[in-house]
Amino acid sequence: MKKYQLIVVGGGPGGYTAAFRAAELGMSVAIVDDNDLGGVCLNWGCIPTKSLLKNAEVFELINDASSYGIEIGKPKVHFDKIIDKTIQARKRLSKGLHFQVRKLGVDFFPGFASFINQNSIEVDGNTLHGDTFIIATGSKAKHLQSLDHSSKNVMTAKDIFNLKKLPKSMTIIGAGAIGVEFAYFFNAFGTNITLLEAQENILPNEDLDVSQWMHKVLKRKKIDIQTNTLATEINDEYVLVSIGVEGNSKGFGLNKIGIEIGPNQHIKVDKDGKTNIDNIYAVGDVVGPPWLAHVSSTEGLYVVEHISKLNPKKIDYNCIPACTYSKPEIGSIGLSQEMLDKDGIDYKVVKSFFNANGKAVASSSTEGFIKILVSKDNYVLGAHIIGSNATEMISEFSLAMRNKLSVENILDSIHPHPTFSEAIFETLMQLK
Ligand SMILES: Cc1cc2nc3c(=O)[nH]c(=O)nc-3n(C[C@H](O)[C@H](O)[C@H](O)COP(=O)(O)OP(=O)(O)OC[C@H]3O[C@@H](n4cnc5c(N)ncnc54)[C@H](O)[C@@H]3O)c2cc1C
Questions:
Q1: pLDDT digits (tens, 9 = 90+) for 55-71
Q2: Which of 151, 208, 274, 377 lies at a C-alpha separation of 20 to 30 Å from 97?
Q3: Could you give the CA distance from residue 286 to residue 159 in angstroms, rounded to a whole number?
Q4: Beta carbons of 4 and 129 less than 8 angstroms apart
Q5: Whose C-alpha lies nearest to ligand 1, atom 34?
């Protein structure tokens, strides 16, 4: 029987980040995954979808080439090559992860892990013994009871990568980030899209101004958006269900060893990521929202440093950036105006539009705005960006909020010209 100081179950961003950090800190580490390292994020989530979206952006740019003074013929789309490009991106990053595994001396066990007791698991007939465990088994897409998910026309995000050709029409159920990203992608290539959302607004977690702006953009692209709508009869060629996820906590012995599971199949953990069993921790999607790769990896790092008694700084769940990738992009962090109103918190709001920004005008990307919500004593409470490069710009607010930098501190920092990020400076200058 092989023995390790730490065994990580699940090799997504939460799991591999934890395993690598633990190895760097000198622990003997094993990581187990029944698919491949990288998890949902690398295999059909964050990375492959961003590769798809880049194709859509290029296609749109080519179609708009004449507005840049460039005349070209009608572009021809090879859907198989678009999918292949996502596979190449995945393979390249996967190689990097396997290289790290070897370099750091982590033992990778491909296979399905099942707990035997709180100190050992079984993986394809091998028993591994661990002093400590981190469960990072992620989440899976929720199914809609009213649909026959065994039909090849009813898909979740993972199935998109098995499509052989562009669908003529598709209904997307759920207008969160994933639903909106796929709506943008397929619409760009000519698929008729209907986007259904049960709540009052698309992107219901975003500040209302942002979600309404995105609604207008998608409408302009002729996407049929129906909010306050539950899926009933659907006549499109395909249905994509993107209504959220549930924790992957079933079927690998957690009941047997008595791990407490909460609502939505999420493993219950304390503020340090520890389950109700002393030597077993859990991180990432399996412990609940926000279901984001950077949250999983942050938790993975935190837990390992906590186990190693390095006294890591607590994760601040009030300042987690969230991104939606489409054209325009959305980057947001902290509280929305609706949340502030609901909680009766005093705030100031400043906003500016990209059509007044030099770089945006020069690069014909003037869609959108920056909206910043600031406390009475001039600290950022929330920032909401919709526009080009929004997903890059939001990190400035992440830095400021996490480190309690004031508006004055941000204004003290020089923003290069011409950049989209100057809009942050210009927006905050309204407070001077
Ligand atoms: C289409 C899509 C797009 C997304 N885009 C983004 C994005 O742009 N940005 C972002 O931050 N997030 C995005 N996400 C979410 C992101 O992918 C997840 O938050 C992230 O992957 C969670 O990481 P994790 O390590 O917690 O789990 P996962 O990445 O789900 O990894 C868990 C791993 O554990 C394995 N596993 C499960 N059970 C066992 C077992 N018993 N034994 C062995 N192995 C097991 C699984 O096979 C999997 O490989 C997207 C998700 C989807 C579906």
A1: 999 999 999 999 999 99
A2: 274
A3: 21
A4: yes
A5: 10
How many Cβ atoms from other residues are within 10 Å of residue 60's Cβ? 14
Q: Which mutation among 46, 116, 323, 332 tests ligand 1's pocket best, with the greatest number of atoms within 8 A of CB?
A: 46
**CB-based burial label for 343 (10 Å; 0-12, 13-18, 19+):** exposed
Question: Ligand 1 pocket: which of 35, 90, 137, 391 to mutate (most atoms <8 Å of CB)?
Answer: 137
pLDDT band at residue 152 under the 50/70/90 scheme: confident
Kindly state if the Cβ of 320 falls inside 6 Å of ligand 1: no
Second-level CATH architecture of 154-241: 3-Layer(bba) Sandwich (3.50)
Q: How confident is the model at residue 151 (pLDDT cuts 50, 70, 90)?
A: confident
Cα(64) to centroid(ligand 1), Å: 35
Average confidence (pLDDT) over 215-223: 98
245 CA to middle of ligand 1, Å? 10
Q: Count Cβ atoms below 10 Å from residue 409 Cβ, excluding itself.
A: 14
CA angle at 55 for the pair 49 and 61, rounded to the nearest 5°? 135
Q: What is the pTM of this model?
A: 0.97
Structure tokens given for 99: 């290289």
Q: Which of 84, 394, 367, 417 is nearest to 218 (CA)?
A: 367
Interval 228-274: pLDDT, tens? 999 888 889 999 999 999 999 999 999 999 999 999 999 999 999 99
Beta strands in 208-254 (DSSP E): 224-226, 238-241, 245-247
CATH-assigned architecture of domain 2-140+246-307: 3-Layer(bba) Sandwich (3.50)
Q: Where are the domains of the chain?
A: 2-140+246-307, 154-241, 322-431
> What CATH homologous superfamily does 322-431 map to?
FAD/NAD-linked reductase, C-terminal dimerisation domain (3.30.390.30)
